[in-house]
Specification:
Layout (H helix, E strand, L loop, with lengths): L13 E7 L2 H11 L5 H6 L2 E3 L9 E5 L7 H10 L5 E5 L1 H5 L21 E3 L6 H16 L1
Parallel strand pairs: 1-2, 1-3, 3-4, 4-5
Helix pairs in contact: 1-5
The structure holds iron/sulfur cluster.
Iron/sulfur cluster binds next to helix 1 and helix 4.
Length: 143
């Protein structure tokens, strides 16, 4: 068993919390909740969204522009996730600052402050990319 492996009871039932901070967050919400946008595939993978309850989530999805003002809230949310916990960075803004890479008030990549396990490119990424990212995360934690 590796350090990253989910425990036996949660390997095939992954709870995710979407921290939607801008447009990418809307796309993730649509993918997690909307019909015909991959939700059936996500449910088949055992992916269950939780809302407003970080203590119930093992995966934090950071999607959208991380402003410096919002960064403390992102860190506080991550701190509430139980171990083992994983971070999925969704979209150019979360990955690098995206179109706002030179803004004085935007964090240039959430990986500077959190351990990102999978980063999904795009502006915004398609729902299928989120699905692929979750599959990649699953492979990572079960390797
Ligand atoms: S990467 Fe593009 S779509 Fe996503 S939050 Fe940034 S500007 Fe919006």
């Amino acid at each position: 068993m590796t350090e990253l492996r989910l425990d036996w009871g949660t390997t095939y039932h992954v709870t995710v919390l979407d921290l939607g901070l801008a447009c990418c967050g809307v796309e993730v919400m649509a993918a997690l909740e909307g019909r015909g946008n991959g939700v059936d595939e996500l449910a088949a993978l055992g992916v269950t969204p939780v809302h407003g309850a970080p203590e119930q989530a093992h995966v934090l999805i950071v999607s959208g522009t991380v402003t410096d003002v919002m960064l403390p809230a992102v860190l506080a949310t991550y701190a509430e996730l139980p171990e083992p916990r994983y971070v999925l960075s969704v979209g150019a803004c979360s990955n690098t600052g995206g179109p706002y890479w030179d803004s004085y008030c935007v964090t240039k990549g959430i990986d500077q402050v959190l351990p990102v396990h999978v980063a999904i490119p795009g502006c915004p990424p398609r729902p299928e990319a989120l699905l692929e990212g979750l599959v990649a995360l699953h492979k990572l934690v079960t390797a």
